[in-house]
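We emphasize that the prediction below concerns an isolated chain of 324 residues; any contacts that depend on oligomerization or on bound cofactors are therefore not represented. The input was used exactly as deposited, without trimming of termini.
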Amino acid sequence: MPNFARRTLLACGLSLIAVAGASHAQTLPPTIKLIVPYPPGGSVDTLARLIAQPLQEQLKTTVVVDNKPGAGGRISASQLKRSPADGSVILIAPNALTTIQSLVYAGQLDYKVMDDFIPLSRLTSFPISLAVPATSSFKTAPQLVAAMKGAKEANYGTSGAGGLAHFAGLEFGKATGIEWTHVAYKGGAPLITDLIGGHLPVAIDTLVDQIEHQRGGKIRVLGIFSDKRYSLAPDVPTLAEQGIKVPTAEGWFGAFLPAKTPAAVVTQLDQAMAKAIANPEVKEKLNKLVLQTAYLNSADFTRLQAAELQQWAPVVRDSGFKPD
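Result of the prediction step, given as a token string:
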């Protein structure tokens, strides 16, 4: 073959490679929406806004945060199912929505997490904790258990019925032999107010919402539902180390895509999420909120989501709880 022919073929080949590369770089749409299923100002919203800029810089596309509150987040989840599977819409959600509400509202939703979504990346995690008023005589979880077992009336409060804390409390009662009643508050603010005031003996909530009140001397966190201490609050003991064997109850925030999103897009966005959550400025600001960065890639996150659904399904079922 003449040299000029070889050069022509080589040039054509390089051109094809360049076109393919350019095509791959343009697989993402010009604008990506991070859908937040709650109003502005909460932890999920804060997380989305913190990662938006580093994602935009990496992906070379516009990234915006779009708050779509309603029905405890289920409206946004339903919207994700109907969104284009091209990477243009990413749901930033807690497992309170994708795990617990999926089980509580089973049969009433127009989506199924493992069928209609792709778990893209887990971003943060935080434990569920058990606390008493600072004026309480209970210094440890075993002391609380001993007193509750002999009490004529025992109860615990959470920020709402049908949440992770509600079911974690049921598991605590089962593990310790306490027959106690769940008291559902309308949010974390009235819950912590009654706990601080001594009107409620025990509150179960996220450590994120309890730790500052402990540091302020208003409540006492007796333990977290985990087998290891939380790195951002290492002085708080686990229930396990106090001899109380309860299932791990951990909250997290993660990113989800519509099912059928191309694998190449999933990989590209997953890698971008990993870099965004590892950004030192992002990490520092999250840590100030007592949110631990806890990235899991799409494959590992998918396994975690499936395992959590399996873990909590019998708990929700056996509780007999039905949402209003």
